[in-house]
Amino acid sequence: MDCNPSSVNFADWQQLSPSAAARELHRRAATLLSTAQQRAALALVLPAEELTAGFAAAVPGGPLAGVPYLAKDLFDAAGLPTFAGSMFLPEVRKTPSRDGAFVRSMGDTGAVLAGKTHLHEFAYGITGENPHYGDCEHPQFPGRTTGGSSSGSAAAVGAGIVPLALGSDTGGSVRVPAAWCGLYGFRLTPRDAWISDAFPLSPSFDTAGWFTANATDMRLAIGALTGLRTIQRSLRGCYLAMPGVDAEVERACRTAADRLAPPADAATRDDLLHGFAPAVDAYHTTVAVEAWETHKAWADRFRDRYDPIVWPRLNRVHALTSAQRDAAHFGLTTVRLLWTKFFLTYDFLILPATPCPALTKAECTLENRGRVITLTAPASLGGLPVLTVPVTLPSGLSSGLQIIVNHPQSPVVNWALNIFGAK
Fold it and tell me: Which of 7, 108, 201, 329 is most buried, taking the most CB atoms under 10 A from its CB?
């Protein structure tokens, strides 16, 4: 097996014996990231003996048989404590005695759980920073972030440790790391079985998802997990330029989007930009209210053990007024009605996934977080599936396209992957 991460795909892993696959995965985990980044990205890699047994027991003939994956540490796996990026969650939540729904379904495909990945604490952040385990850095550009909250999963696929990793996406936590790490990402819809038993941030917006390093593997994963559809008619979509995007990123994203669809006409553009205006405030308010509902039973007792940046986000619920809550409800309704109207005419909308390349630590500011959420909140409020494809920038860094559809089995997904996989 070639040690170049870009050459290691599902088929490469499937050619290995169980013991060879376990050895190779451990070698990669130990050598493809620095020691500090191993700690920042990897919550747990299963022992070689246990991993060998897992490969040997993989469902024969399954569509992902023998493909190793890592799971973001808010998805339960039997016998493994779930920390969700914190230092204390197992003290208030028992170690699961059975696999969560997503891990069970992965096993049904023949995929092999290799361990778990760290995340922005309690998934409440988009920058991949974590004071407990270390900030997760871009595998090819140290000093820049992977993005969060699915930071460890993106780092593991980006570094070539595994070809597949599970993430979750509430406000962009698959889309942003995929874009910044040059990966393919797919997010599903809220309240489905795979996210419903994971540790929550905001159930109205939380979705399950995953990363791969290339379009072929993403097509295989989607085909195995949700199914792919084709359609005979032409598919109609458009690209929407959004405010606050760096000029370099906008040019690259528009050029990449031209492979799928033209820019939105003036009427559609104005309608969408006006309709999306309340999305960011509605997102932040709703997440604050729902996150507090999860944490309120133990938050005061453990307040000194929370990330000092995450704690104020949780605590801001107490400053929300009834007017802000009402405005959030109105904004959520407005955005969802807008999406319903849009999909009466179109099959997909393309937005930039990030406003800029991967951030440095100094650039992980409130302002830049706001710029990111401006791009990701509309699909989050709509509860919509999104395929993220990477877009390389002249600097060698990357952003990505959000290809937003109205159903996980939209034929747009297969069509877009065929186009981008052919490059």
Answer: 201
